[in-house]
Amino acid sequence: MMKFNTKTIHGGQTHDPAYGAVMPPIYQTSTYAQTTPGGHKGFEYSRTHNPTRKALENALASIENGTYGLAFASGLAAIDAVMKLLKPGDEVISTNDLYGGTYRLFTKIFQDFGITFHFVGMQDVKAIEERINANTKLIWVETPTNPMMNIIDIQACAAIAKKHNLLLAVDNTFATPYLQQPLDFGADIVMHSATKYLGGHSDVVMGALIVNDNALAEKLYFIQNASGAVSGPQDSFLVLRGIKTLHVRMQRHCENGKAIAEFLQKHPKVEKVFWPGLKNHPNHKIAKAQMKDFGGMVSFTTKDNNYKDAIKTVERLKVFTLAESLGGVESLAGHPASMTHASIPKLEREKTGVLDSLIRLSVGIEDIDDLIADLEQALA
Ligand code: P1T
Protein backbone atom coordinates (compact mmCIF):
# COMPACT_ATOMS: atom_id res chain seq x y z
CA MET A 1 0.00 0.00 0.00
CA MET A 2 1.21 3.53 -0.85
CA LYS A 3 2.43 5.78 1.95
CA PHE A 4 0.47 8.96 2.64
CA ASN A 5 2.92 11.30 0.87
CA THR A 6 2.56 9.23 -2.30
CA LYS A 7 -1.22 8.89 -1.99
CA THR A 8 -1.68 12.67 -2.04
CA ILE A 9 -0.18 12.67 -5.54
CA HIS A 10 -1.19 9.31 -7.01
CA GLY A 11 -3.90 7.86 -4.78
CA GLY A 12 -6.87 6.63 -6.80
CA GLN A 13 -5.53 8.31 -9.94
CA THR A 14 -5.10 6.96 -13.47
CA HIS A 15 -3.86 8.83 -16.52
CA ASP A 16 -6.69 10.02 -18.72
CA PRO A 17 -7.49 7.28 -21.25
CA ALA A 18 -8.13 9.73 -24.13
CA TYR A 19 -4.66 11.33 -24.52
CA GLY A 20 -2.70 10.26 -21.45
CA ALA A 21 -3.08 13.65 -19.78
CA VAL A 22 -1.20 13.49 -16.47
CA MET A 23 -3.70 15.79 -14.77
CA PRO A 24 -7.35 14.86 -15.28
CA PRO A 25 -9.03 17.12 -17.83
CA ILE A 26 -11.73 19.46 -16.59
CA TYR A 27 -14.77 17.78 -18.09
CA GLN A 28 -16.83 20.94 -18.32
CA THR A 29 -19.93 19.17 -19.57
CA SER A 30 -23.39 18.62 -18.18
CA THR A 31 -24.21 15.58 -20.29
CA TYR A 32 -22.76 12.70 -22.35
CA ALA A 33 -23.72 11.33 -25.77
CA GLN A 34 -25.54 8.00 -25.83
CA THR A 35 -25.64 5.69 -28.87
CA THR A 36 -28.96 4.22 -27.76
CA PRO A 37 -30.89 4.94 -24.53
CA GLY A 38 -28.53 3.72 -21.81
CA GLY A 39 -25.69 3.26 -24.30
CA HIS A 40 -23.00 5.36 -22.62
CA LYS A 41 -19.50 5.03 -21.15
CA GLY A 42 -20.52 5.18 -17.51
CA PHE A 43 -21.46 8.85 -17.50
CA GLU A 44 -24.97 10.10 -18.21
CA TYR A 45 -25.45 13.43 -16.49
CA SER A 46 -22.98 15.48 -14.44
CA ARG A 47 -25.09 15.79 -11.29
CA THR A 48 -24.87 12.01 -11.03
CA HIS A 49 -21.29 11.48 -12.26
CA ASN A 50 -18.55 13.59 -13.79
CA PRO A 51 -15.07 12.27 -14.66
CA THR A 52 -13.20 15.17 -13.01
CA ARG A 53 -15.29 14.88 -9.86
CA LYS A 54 -14.80 11.11 -9.93
CA ALA A 55 -11.01 11.55 -10.05
CA LEU A 56 -11.24 13.85 -7.02
CA GLU A 57 -13.57 11.49 -5.16
CA ASN A 58 -11.10 8.65 -5.71
CA ALA A 59 -8.28 10.84 -4.37
CA LEU A 60 -10.36 11.78 -1.32
CA ALA A 61 -11.06 8.12 -0.54
CA SER A 62 -7.37 7.28 -0.93
CA ILE A 63 -5.94 9.97 1.39
CA GLU A 64 -8.49 9.17 4.13
CA ASN A 65 -7.85 5.42 3.89
CA GLY A 66 -11.46 4.98 2.83
CA THR A 67 -13.24 3.13 0.06
CA TYR A 68 -15.70 5.76 -1.18
CA GLY A 69 -15.36 9.52 -1.63
CA LEU A 70 -18.07 12.08 -2.34
CA ALA A 71 -17.53 15.72 -3.30
CA PHE A 72 -20.13 18.40 -2.55
CA ALA A 73 -20.65 22.06 -3.37
CA SER A 74 -19.54 23.11 0.14
CA GLY A 75 -18.66 21.68 3.51
CA LEU A 76 -22.16 22.48 4.72
CA ALA A 77 -23.67 20.67 1.73
CA ALA A 78 -21.67 17.60 2.78
CA ILE A 79 -23.00 17.85 6.35
CA ASP A 80 -26.50 18.42 4.96
CA ALA A 81 -26.21 15.11 3.08
CA VAL A 82 -25.21 13.27 6.28
CA MET A 83 -28.22 14.71 8.13
CA LYS A 84 -30.51 13.41 5.38
CA LEU A 85 -29.63 9.88 6.50
CA LEU A 86 -31.87 10.67 9.50
CA LYS A 87 -35.65 10.69 10.01
CA PRO A 88 -37.93 12.82 12.19
CA GLY A 89 -37.63 11.65 15.80
CA ASP A 90 -33.96 10.73 15.47
CA GLU A 91 -31.43 12.30 17.83
CA VAL A 92 -27.87 13.48 17.31
CA ILE A 93 -25.19 14.04 19.91
CA SER A 94 -22.80 16.74 18.74
CA THR A 95 -19.77 18.38 20.24
CA ASN A 96 -20.69 21.75 21.80
CA ASP A 97 -17.70 23.56 20.29
CA LEU A 98 -17.96 23.48 16.53
CA TYR A 99 -18.08 25.65 13.44
CA GLY A 100 -20.92 28.19 13.80
CA GLY A 101 -22.37 27.28 10.41
CA THR A 102 -22.67 23.63 11.40
CA TYR A 103 -24.45 24.66 14.60
CA ARG A 104 -26.76 26.87 12.51
CA LEU A 105 -27.55 24.03 10.06
CA PHE A 106 -28.39 21.70 12.96
CA THR A 107 -30.46 24.12 15.04
CA LYS A 108 -32.08 26.33 12.40
CA ILE A 109 -32.79 23.78 9.64
CA PHE A 110 -32.77 20.16 10.79
CA GLN A 111 -34.30 20.80 14.21
CA ASP A 112 -37.40 22.01 12.35
CA PHE A 113 -37.54 18.69 10.52
CA GLY A 114 -37.94 16.89 13.83
CA ILE A 115 -34.36 15.95 14.58
CA THR A 116 -33.12 16.62 18.11
CA PHE A 117 -29.56 17.76 18.77
CA HIS A 118 -27.72 17.47 22.08
CA PHE A 119 -24.57 19.59 22.35
CA VAL A 120 -22.06 18.27 24.87
CA GLY A 121 -18.42 18.83 25.72
CA MET A 122 -16.79 15.72 24.31
CA GLN A 123 -13.31 16.13 25.77
CA ASP A 124 -14.67 13.73 28.37
CA VAL A 125 -16.39 11.06 26.27
CA LYS A 126 -18.51 9.93 29.24
CA ALA A 127 -20.68 12.98 28.53
CA ILE A 128 -21.69 11.34 25.24
CA GLU A 129 -22.90 8.09 26.75
CA GLU A 130 -25.11 9.94 29.25
CA ARG A 131 -27.15 11.42 26.37
CA ILE A 132 -27.73 8.20 24.43
CA ASN A 133 -31.30 6.90 24.26
CA ALA A 134 -33.32 4.66 21.95
CA ASN A 135 -33.68 7.48 19.37
CA THR A 136 -29.99 8.34 19.13
CA LYS A 137 -28.62 7.64 15.66
CA LEU A 138 -25.50 9.73 15.14
CA ILE A 139 -22.52 11.16 17.01
CA TRP A 140 -21.06 14.30 15.40
CA VAL A 141 -17.46 15.07 16.27
CA GLU A 142 -15.21 17.93 15.22
CA THR A 143 -11.57 17.61 16.32
CA PRO A 144 -9.67 19.85 16.72
CA THR A 145 -12.75 21.97 17.37
CA ASN A 146 -13.35 25.34 15.76
CA PRO A 147 -12.22 27.67 17.27
CA MET A 148 -11.21 26.39 20.72
CA MET A 149 -8.90 23.65 19.49
CA ASN A 150 -10.31 21.04 21.87
CA ILE A 151 -9.29 17.50 21.04
CA ILE A 152 -11.79 14.66 21.12
CA ASP A 153 -10.69 11.04 21.42
CA ILE A 154 -11.97 9.52 18.15
CA GLN A 155 -11.20 5.93 19.13
CA ALA A 156 -13.15 6.30 22.40
CA CYS A 157 -16.10 7.81 20.49
CA ALA A 158 -15.97 4.93 18.01
CA ALA A 159 -16.14 2.41 20.84
CA ILE A 160 -19.27 4.12 22.20
CA ALA A 161 -20.82 4.33 18.73
CA LYS A 162 -20.17 0.65 18.10
CA LYS A 163 -21.55 -0.41 21.49
CA HIS A 164 -24.83 1.45 20.89
CA ASN A 165 -25.01 0.80 17.15
CA LEU A 166 -24.72 4.49 16.19
CA LEU A 167 -23.00 6.22 13.30
CA LEU A 168 -19.90 8.23 14.12
CA ALA A 169 -19.10 11.17 11.83
CA VAL A 170 -15.89 13.18 12.23
CA ASP A 171 -15.35 16.64 10.75
CA ASN A 172 -11.65 16.34 9.89
CA THR A 173 -11.32 19.84 8.39
CA PHE A 174 -8.79 21.25 10.90
CA ALA A 175 -6.58 18.16 11.10
CA THR A 176 -6.66 16.84 7.52
CA PRO A 177 -5.69 13.21 6.84
CA TYR A 178 -2.04 14.30 7.09
CA LEU A 179 -2.55 14.53 10.86
CA GLN A 180 -5.25 11.95 11.53
CA GLN A 181 -7.34 9.43 9.62
CA PRO A 182 -10.61 8.97 11.55
CA LEU A 183 -11.77 5.88 9.60
CA ASP A 184 -8.71 4.05 10.94
CA PHE A 185 -9.91 4.90 14.46
CA GLY A 186 -13.34 3.38 13.74
CA ALA A 187 -15.34 6.38 12.51
CA ASP A 188 -18.04 5.65 9.91
CA ILE A 189 -17.99 8.98 8.07
CA VAL A 190 -15.22 11.53 7.58
CA MET A 191 -16.34 15.00 6.55
CA HIS A 192 -14.28 17.91 5.21
CA SER A 193 -14.74 21.49 4.34
CA ALA A 194 -12.38 21.00 1.36
CA THR A 195 -12.49 24.79 1.11
CA LYS A 196 -9.73 24.75 3.73
CA TYR A 197 -6.54 22.66 3.75
CA LEU A 198 -7.51 20.16 1.03
CA GLY A 199 -7.99 22.97 -1.51
CA GLY A 200 -5.28 24.87 0.28
CA HIS A 201 -5.26 28.07 -1.79
CA SER A 202 -8.42 29.93 -0.74
CA ASP A 203 -9.82 29.75 -4.25
CA VAL A 204 -12.66 27.26 -3.98
CA VAL A 205 -15.61 26.31 -1.74
CA MET A 206 -16.19 22.56 -1.48
CA GLY A 207 -17.15 19.73 0.85
CA ALA A 208 -16.32 16.05 1.07
CA LEU A 209 -17.42 12.81 2.68
CA ILE A 210 -15.41 9.61 2.87
CA VAL A 211 -16.75 6.24 4.06
CA ASN A 212 -15.82 2.55 4.03
CA ASP A 213 -19.16 0.80 4.31
CA ASN A 214 -20.78 -0.13 1.03
CA ALA A 215 -24.41 0.27 2.14
CA LEU A 216 -23.68 3.65 3.75
CA ALA A 217 -21.88 4.81 0.60
CA GLU A 218 -24.87 3.82 -1.52
CA LYS A 219 -27.23 5.85 0.66
CA LEU A 220 -24.94 8.88 0.52
CA TYR A 221 -24.44 8.66 -3.27
CA PHE A 222 -28.22 8.47 -3.57
CA ILE A 223 -28.62 11.62 -1.44
CA GLN A 224 -25.79 13.38 -3.33
CA ASN A 225 -27.58 12.78 -6.64
CA ALA A 226 -31.13 13.23 -5.34
CA SER A 227 -30.44 16.49 -3.47
CA GLY A 228 -27.89 17.63 -6.03
CA ALA A 229 -25.37 19.80 -4.13
CA VAL A 230 -22.40 18.47 -6.11
CA SER A 231 -19.04 20.11 -6.78
CA GLY A 232 -18.43 21.36 -10.31
CA PRO A 233 -15.66 20.07 -12.61
CA GLN A 234 -13.48 23.20 -12.38
CA ASP A 235 -13.63 23.21 -8.57
CA SER A 236 -13.00 19.46 -8.48
CA PHE A 237 -9.85 20.03 -10.54
CA LEU A 238 -8.63 22.76 -8.18
CA VAL A 239 -9.05 20.62 -5.07
CA LEU A 240 -7.42 17.66 -6.79
CA ARG A 241 -4.45 19.90 -7.53
CA GLY A 242 -4.46 21.19 -3.95
CA ILE A 243 -4.34 17.68 -2.51
CA LYS A 244 -1.13 16.97 -4.41
CA THR A 245 0.81 19.34 -2.11
CA LEU A 246 -1.19 18.70 1.07
CA HIS A 247 1.61 16.90 2.90
CA VAL A 248 4.23 19.55 2.09
CA ARG A 249 1.94 22.40 3.05
CA MET A 250 0.82 20.70 6.26
CA GLN A 251 4.38 20.09 7.36
CA ARG A 252 5.08 23.84 7.14
CA HIS A 253 1.70 24.80 8.66
CA CYS A 254 2.62 22.66 11.67
CA GLU A 255 6.13 24.16 12.01
CA ASN A 256 4.84 27.72 11.78
CA GLY A 257 1.89 26.93 14.06
CA LYS A 258 4.26 25.67 16.73
CA ALA A 259 6.51 28.74 16.51
CA ILE A 260 3.53 31.09 16.79
CA ALA A 261 1.91 29.21 19.68
CA GLU A 262 5.20 29.40 21.56
CA PHE A 263 5.66 33.08 20.74
CA LEU A 264 2.13 33.93 21.92
CA GLN A 265 2.51 31.92 25.09
CA LYS A 266 5.42 34.17 26.13
CA HIS A 267 3.72 37.42 25.15
CA PRO A 268 2.85 39.61 28.19
CA LYS A 269 -0.58 40.66 26.81
CA VAL A 270 -1.70 37.14 26.01
CA GLU A 271 -3.87 35.30 28.54
CA LYS A 272 -4.29 31.84 27.02
CA VAL A 273 -3.08 30.05 23.90
CA PHE A 274 -5.08 27.20 22.40
CA TRP A 275 -2.90 24.89 20.31
CA PRO A 276 -2.97 21.13 20.96
CA GLY A 277 0.82 20.82 20.72
CA LEU A 278 1.36 22.82 23.91
CA LYS A 279 2.06 20.64 26.94
CA ASN A 280 -0.40 22.68 29.01
CA HIS A 281 -3.23 22.11 26.49
CA PRO A 282 -5.88 20.15 28.45
CA ASN A 283 -6.13 17.44 25.76
CA HIS A 284 -2.45 17.35 24.79
CA LYS A 285 -2.11 13.65 25.61
CA ILE A 286 -4.95 12.58 23.32
CA ALA A 287 -3.69 14.94 20.62
CA LYS A 288 -0.26 13.34 20.85
CA ALA A 289 -1.75 9.87 20.61
CA GLN A 290 -4.11 10.44 17.70
CA MET A 291 -2.39 13.16 15.64
CA LYS A 292 0.89 13.04 13.76
CA ASP A 293 1.58 16.72 14.54
CA PHE A 294 -0.59 19.59 15.79
CA GLY A 295 -1.54 21.73 12.82
CA GLY A 296 -1.52 25.39 11.94
CA MET A 297 -4.64 26.62 13.71
CA VAL A 298 -3.94 28.67 16.84
CA SER A 299 -6.40 30.62 18.98
CA PHE A 300 -5.64 32.98 21.87
CA THR A 301 -7.25 35.38 24.32
CA THR A 302 -5.78 38.55 25.81
CA LYS A 303 -5.60 39.56 29.47
CA ASP A 304 -8.01 42.50 29.17
CA ASN A 305 -10.58 40.31 27.32
CA ASN A 306 -11.83 43.38 25.49
CA TYR A 307 -14.01 43.01 22.37
CA LYS A 308 -12.90 46.33 20.83
CA ASP A 309 -9.19 45.76 21.51
CA ALA A 310 -9.37 42.36 19.81
CA ILE A 311 -10.95 43.96 16.76
CA LYS A 312 -8.21 46.65 16.74
CA THR A 313 -5.53 43.96 16.94
CA VAL A 314 -6.86 42.08 13.91
CA GLU A 315 -7.25 45.36 12.02
CA ARG A 316 -3.56 46.19 12.58
CA LEU A 317 -2.29 42.93 11.07
CA LYS A 318 -0.52 43.32 7.73
CA VAL A 319 0.87 39.91 6.71
CA PHE A 320 -2.12 38.10 8.24
CA THR A 321 -5.30 38.97 6.35
CA LEU A 322 -8.42 39.63 8.39
CA ALA A 323 -10.86 37.17 6.85
CA GLU A 324 -13.22 34.28 7.40
CA SER A 325 -11.99 30.81 6.49
CA LEU A 326 -8.68 29.05 7.04
CA GLY A 327 -6.33 26.45 5.67
CA GLY A 328 -4.85 28.35 2.72
CA VAL A 329 -1.17 29.01 2.09
CA GLU A 330 -1.64 32.61 3.30
CA SER A 331 -2.07 33.46 6.97
CA LEU A 332 -5.52 34.60 8.04
CA ALA A 333 -6.81 36.02 11.31
CA GLY A 334 -10.38 36.07 12.54
CA HIS A 335 -12.40 37.28 15.50
CA PRO A 336 -14.86 34.41 16.09
CA ALA A 337 -17.23 36.35 18.38
CA SER A 338 -18.04 38.80 15.59
CA MET A 339 -17.33 36.62 12.54
CA THR A 340 -17.44 32.81 12.20
CA HIS A 341 -19.30 32.22 15.48
CA ALA A 342 -21.56 35.28 15.51
CA SER A 343 -24.52 32.98 14.80
CA ILE A 344 -24.04 31.30 18.20
CA PRO A 345 -25.72 33.24 21.06
CA LYS A 346 -23.17 35.07 23.31
CA LEU A 347 -24.09 33.00 26.37
CA GLU A 348 -23.69 29.74 24.42
CA ARG A 349 -20.38 30.75 22.83
CA GLU A 350 -18.90 31.96 26.11
CA LYS A 351 -19.76 28.65 27.76
CA THR A 352 -17.39 26.96 25.33
CA GLY A 353 -14.67 29.62 25.72
CA VAL A 354 -15.34 31.80 22.70
CA LEU A 355 -14.66 34.99 24.67
CA ASP A 356 -14.81 38.55 23.33
CA SER A 357 -11.01 38.76 23.01
CA LEU A 358 -10.54 35.40 21.28
CA ILE A 359 -8.54 35.69 18.06
CA ARG A 360 -8.19 32.71 15.73
CA LEU A 361 -5.16 32.40 13.48
CA SER A 362 -4.86 30.21 10.44
CA VAL A 363 -1.09 30.17 10.26
CA GLY A 364 0.07 30.04 6.66
CA ILE A 365 3.31 28.91 5.12
CA GLU A 366 5.05 32.30 4.84
CA ASP A 367 8.42 32.99 6.47
CA ILE A 368 7.94 32.60 10.21
CA ASP A 369 9.95 35.76 11.03
CA ASP A 370 7.50 37.91 9.07
CA LEU A 371 4.52 36.28 10.77
CA ILE A 372 5.90 36.81 14.27
CA ALA A 373 6.92 40.40 13.53
CA ASP A 374 3.39 41.06 12.29
CA LEU A 375 1.79 39.71 15.48
CA GLU A 376 4.32 41.63 17.56
CA GLN A 377 3.35 44.99 16.02
CA ALA A 378 -0.38 44.22 16.09
CA LEU A 379 -0.31 43.34 19.80
CA ALA A 380 1.95 46.28 20.77
O1 P1T B 1 -17.64 26.75 4.42
P1 P1T B 1 -17.92 25.32 4.05
O2 P1T B 1 -17.03 24.78 3.00
O3 P1T B 1 -19.38 25.09 3.76
O4 P1T B 1 -17.57 24.43 5.34
C1 P1T B 1 -18.20 24.58 6.57
C2 P1T B 1 -17.28 24.16 7.68
C3 P1T B 1 -17.41 22.91 8.24
N1 P1T B 1 -16.60 22.47 9.23
C4 P1T B 1 -15.61 23.24 9.70
C5 P1T B 1 -14.73 22.72 10.79
C6 P1T B 1 -15.40 24.51 9.17
O5 P1T B 1 -14.38 25.24 9.67
C7 P1T B 1 -16.26 25.00 8.15
C8 P1T B 1 -16.11 26.36 7.58
N2 P1T B 1 -15.42 27.24 8.41
C9 P1T B 1 -15.18 28.56 8.16
C10 P1T B 1 -15.62 29.20 7.07
C11 P1T B 1 -14.40 29.26 9.20
O6 P1T B 1 -13.90 30.37 8.95
O7 P1T B 1 -14.27 28.69 10.29
- SSE string: HHEHEHEHEHEHEEHHHEHEHEEHEH
Radius of gyration: 21 Å
Tell me the number of strands. Answer: 12
What low-confidence regions span 5 or more consecutive residues with pLDDT below 50? none
Portion of residues within helices: 25-40%
Provide keyphrases for this structure:
single chain, 380 residues, alpha/beta, 15% strand
Quick structural summary:
The protein is α/β, with parallel strands linked by helices and 380 residues long.
Description:
The protein is α/β, with parallel strands linked by helices and 380 residues long. Helices cover 37% and strands 15% of the residues. The chain has 14 helices and twelve strands. The strands form two sheets. Strands 1-7-6-5-4-2-3 form a seven-stranded mixed sheet, with helices on both faces. The protein has a five-stranded mixed sheet with strand order 8-9-12-11-10, with helices on one face. Helix 2 runs parallel beside helix 9 (233-243) and helix 3 (75-83) runs parallel beside helix 4. It is globular and about 75 Å long. The termini are far apart. The relative contact order is 0.13. The structure holds ligand P1T. Ligand P1T is lined by residues 74-76, 99, 101-102, 142, 146, 171, 173-174, 193, 195, 205, 207, 324-326, 340.
Topology:
Elements: H1 4-10, H2 51-63, E1 68-72, H3 75-83, E2 91-95, H4 100-109, E3 116-120, H5 126-130, E4 136-142, H6 154-163, E5 167-171, H7 176-179, E6 189-193, E7 207-211, H8 214-227, H9 233-243, H10 246-266, E8 270-274, H11 284-290, E9 297-302, H12 307-316, E10 321-322, E11 332-334, H13 346-351, E12 359-362, H14 368-379
Parallel strand pairs: 2-3, 2-4, 4-5, 5-6, 10-11
Antiparallel strand pairs: 1-7, 6-7, 8-9, 9-12, 11-12
Bound molecules: ligand P1T.
